[in-house]
């Protein structure tokens, strides 16, 4: 049987007069408490005001009145004897005289009920009728007492309900403390009736989930919507279940800071374990009393064992085992590839953007945002059709948004003006393939053109993994059939198919402090760009990846570049190799020596590749005499004195060759050698008398055949000349350093003049290079530098001989003129071009031949497999 000692705490006379007591419950059926006389109570209150001490309750038992389960409704007799405050509040056994009155009750918590007073409750009636009279007497006495003590502040405390609640909370707390770690599985569904934060009458809401100051999740942004549907699932690790989860809603703003849209909290201790709980969180703000809507979500609190907690922390890289033998593996885990892919973006250009300045133009730049990854382009001055040509990469994380947000701004001195925005859902983009995307900005603010590729995926489950790859004979037969001669005039832009297997590299240069590197490989075919995963802490990485490209031009060049990943700065260059498609050996695994950035010198290491390609001959030939695909990302040309000298020498070599022909003819005219002059004069008479138009291509065919035999006999001489040309290229860097040093030493005014002179010299340099390259391309066409192109020229000349033999020249000129005059009418969007120059653009110049030249791998034991 529990006993309760109820007392009062005295307060000074100046204070509000209050008394503390508790509800008196009889514990026996026949118990009946008699109310004390009024005079005695008045004497008690007088003593209470003066002494300000604790009080002791006293009740007298009436033995002659008994009842089963009766509730005593009476005012207790209160003694004026003194107790310390501490005894009144905390001691429940102050007197054994009252034990029989509290058989089924406990002490009312002072924290729950505040100041306690005994009261006669008019709503409670006795169970048996023979107690009605005494109850009425008690109620009348209580009414009189309340008239005398109107300011006593009497309250009712439901002791049994409070005790039940406290017991449940203690049991709940004890149950939660049995587990040291939890997972909170959250299903963020939607928001309703959210507050307006934009001038357009809408908002761009997103939600953040935090515990303390640490953010665990950020939802995607739903634009222009007050009832957003996120439908996102994620998991939050919980170490302290008694800390609430803060849910904050924001309006994404194009300005500096996002606007608040309200907040709420999730009390994790009130969630049922392993059972989904539907929550409706009403958003509120301390500074704003308006209705802000609510968020609907589902939460499941899942307890985890200590082993699962350790496993989770290890996957996050937050804990390390302190053992000497595992230091290297743990360091690799710390730097492990936690991203699931790489988004490579080439920002090409914009069209018809909004005019934001007074001059009717803008200074636009673009901001990209993918989760926490951001990029900002350079701004272009005074244009509505900017051309940026910038390349960058953003990382994709599984637990972050996969929506690429694109915003365009106008650059100003003070605050930048917002011009427009759009977004791309990356989950709908096909991976391992480069896409040309033209996106319209909202509200007709213009268009943005970019190239986008998702690559860099890892894991054996991907289709690019070489370990699980098996050759499908049926698919290969379908490829041969699709690129067969029967389909030569279907989709002329789809010339062929290229497959590249990136197996491994060996002997790479160390780029990190520990003598290792974190290499990854990038493959580029014109504007298509794919990437392998990163292999950490090794100089002999094994990627084992397969990549496929759609070939638009059979004369394209595959560039394979190896980089060292660095999270804090730009990737570091390790080596590169350039391989034209027509020089690839199908289905053969070969080691390729890596070169430097200029592709002229040797770099450390080699890479093992296997390539295969299929193409349509007719489509490839048609594409050859059409304009080449523009490569957007190219090195910006700079003026270099050494390069200028080399271009001048190249042009002079061509001019000297032409002058040699002129000198030969001049010597024939001047009869410096009688035999030579007689022979030349005889040939001139015969050709002039018997000349026919078809003889001109025949002459060129003879020249092709002559050079074909010369090329076979003098291949060694050709290699020496290329090596000489390569040695000239290697001097460029020194001259660049000297020029940059001169520019740093000069003053601002002189520097501007110097830059203006450089621009003029750069134009001259590029003009010289164009002339020299054209001459070298013509020469390399006839000397069979690219056999496929030379053979195509031979076939074209042979057809020309037949046509010229049977058709008069005037008919050919007529057909040519009709084609030129009607081309714009037949194809209004056709790009004007010169077929001969387009053909020559596919022929490499001498410097390009050096870039494509293969070097012997300088790594020992390439056939053996090494491990880092």
UniProtKB/TrEMBL annotation:
Residues 12-39, 55-162, 727-750 are annotated as: Disordered. The keyword Acyltransferase does not apply. GO terms for cellular component: synaptic vesicle membrane. Residues 727-738 have a biased composition (Acidic residues). The keyword Disulfide bond does not apply. It is a multi-pass membrane protein. Residues 739-750 have a biased composition (Basic and acidic residues). GO terms for biological process: regulation of neurotransmitter secretion. This is Multiple C2 and transmembrane domain-containing protein 1-like isoform X7. It comes from Crassostrea virginica (Eastern oyster). The gene is LOC111129516.
């Amino acid at each position: 049987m529990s006993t309760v000692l109820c007392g009062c705490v005295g307060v000074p006379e100046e204070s509000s007069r209050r008394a503390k007591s508790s509800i008196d419950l009889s514990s026996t059926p026949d118990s009946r408490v008699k109310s004390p006389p009024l005079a005695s109570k008045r004497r008690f209150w007088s003593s209470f005001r003066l002494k300000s001490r604790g009080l002791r309750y006293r009740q007298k038992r009436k033995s002659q009145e008994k009842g089963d389960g009766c509730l005593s409704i009476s005012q207790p007799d209160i003694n004026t004897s003194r107790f310390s405050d501490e005894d009144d509040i905390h001691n429940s056994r102050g007197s054994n005289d009252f034990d029989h009155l509290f058989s089924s009750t406990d002490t009312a918590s002072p924290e729950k009920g505040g100041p306690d007073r005994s009261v006669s409750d008019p709503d409670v009636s006795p169970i048996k009728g023979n107690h009605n009279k005494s109850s009425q007497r008690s109620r009348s006495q209580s009414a009189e007492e309340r008239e005398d003590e109107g300011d006593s502040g009497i309250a009712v405390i439901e002791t049994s309900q409070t005790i039940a609640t406290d017991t449940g909370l203690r049991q709940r707390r004890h149950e939660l403390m049995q587990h040291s770690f939890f997972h909170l599985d959250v299903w963020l569904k939607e928001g309703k009736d959210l507050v307006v934060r934009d001038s357009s009458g809408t908002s761009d809401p997103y939600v953040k989930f935090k515990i303390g100051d640490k953010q665990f999740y950020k939802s995607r942004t739903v634009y222009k919507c007050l009832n957003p549907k996120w439908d996102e699932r994620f998991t939050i690790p919980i170490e302290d279940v008694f800390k609430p989860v803060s849910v904050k809603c924001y309006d994404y703003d194009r300005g500096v800071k996002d606007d608040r849209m309200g907040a709420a909290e999730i009390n994790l201790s009130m969630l049922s374990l392993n059972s989904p709980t539907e929550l409706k969180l009403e958003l509120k703000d301390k500074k704003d009393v308006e209705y802000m809507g609510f968020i609907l979500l589902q939460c499941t609190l899942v307890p985890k064992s200590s082993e699962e907690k350790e496993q989770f922390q290890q996957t996050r890289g937050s804990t390390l085992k302190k053992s000497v033998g595992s230091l290297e593996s743990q360091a690799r885990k710390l730097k492990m590839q936690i991203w699931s892919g790489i988004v490579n973006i080439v920002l090409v250009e914009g069209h018809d953007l909004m005019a934001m300045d007074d001059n009717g133009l803008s200074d636009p730049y673009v901001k990209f945002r993918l989760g926490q990854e951001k990029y900002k382009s350079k701004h272009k001055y005074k244009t509505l059709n900017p051309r940026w040509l910038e390349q960058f990469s953003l990382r994709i994380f599984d637990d972050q948004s996969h929506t690429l947000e694109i915003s365009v701004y106008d650059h100003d001195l003070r605050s930048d003006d917002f011009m427009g925005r759009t977004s791309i859902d990356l989950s709908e983009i096909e991976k391992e393939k480069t896409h040309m995307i033209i996106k319209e900005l909202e509200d007709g603010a213009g268009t943005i053109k970019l190239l986008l590729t998702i690559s860099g995926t890892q894991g054996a489950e991907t289709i690019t993994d070489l370990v699980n790859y098996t050759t499908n004979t049926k698919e290969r037969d379908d490829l041969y059939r699709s690129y067969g001669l029967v389909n030569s005039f279907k989709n002329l832009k789809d010339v062929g198919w290229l497959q590249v297997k990136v197996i491994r590299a060996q002997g790479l240069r160390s780029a990190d402090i520990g003598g290792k590197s974190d290499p990854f490989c990038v493959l580029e075919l014109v504007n298509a760009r794919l990437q392998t995963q990163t292999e950490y802490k090794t100089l002999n990485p094994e990627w084992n990846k397969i990549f496929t490209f759609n070939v638009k031009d059979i004369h394209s060049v595959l560039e394979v570049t190896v980089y060292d990943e660095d999270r804090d700065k730009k990737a570091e260059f390790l080596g590169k190799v350039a391989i034209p498609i027509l020089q690839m050996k199908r289905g053969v695994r070969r080691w390729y020596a890596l070169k430097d950035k200029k592709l002229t010198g040797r770099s450390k290491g080699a890479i093992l590749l296997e390539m295969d390609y299929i193409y349509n001959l007719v489509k490839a030939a048609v594409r050859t005499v059409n304009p080449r695909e523009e490569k957007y990302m190219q090195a910006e040309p700079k003026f270099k004195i050494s390069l200028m000298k080399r271009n001048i020498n190249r042009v002079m070599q061509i001019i000297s060759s032409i002058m040699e022909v002129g000198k030969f003819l001049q010597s024939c005219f001047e009869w410096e050698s009688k035999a030579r002059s007689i022979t030349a004069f005889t040939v001139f008479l015969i050709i002039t008398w018997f000349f026919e138009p078809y003889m001109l291509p025949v002459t060129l065919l003879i020249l092709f055949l002559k050079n074909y035999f010369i090329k076979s006999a003098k291949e060694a001489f050709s290699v020496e000349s290329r090596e000489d040309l390569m040695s000239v290229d290697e001097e460029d860097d020194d001259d660049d350093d000297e020029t940059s040093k001169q520019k740093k030493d000069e003053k601002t005014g002189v520097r501007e003049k110097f830059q203006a002179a450089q621009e003029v010299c750069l134009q001259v340099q590029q003009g010289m290079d164009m002339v020299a390259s054209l001459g070298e391309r013509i020469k390399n066409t006839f000397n069979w530098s690219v056999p496929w192109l030379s053979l195509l020229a031979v076939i074209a000349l042979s057809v020309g001989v037949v046509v010229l033999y049977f058709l008069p020249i005037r008919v050919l000129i007529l057909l040519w003129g009709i084609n030129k005059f009607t081309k714009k009418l037949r194809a209004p969007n056709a790009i004007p071009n010169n077929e001969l120059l387009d053909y020559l653009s596919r022929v490499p110049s001498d410097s390009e031949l050096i870039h494509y030249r293969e070097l012997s791998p300088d790594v020992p034991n390439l056939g053996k497999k090494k491990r880092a």
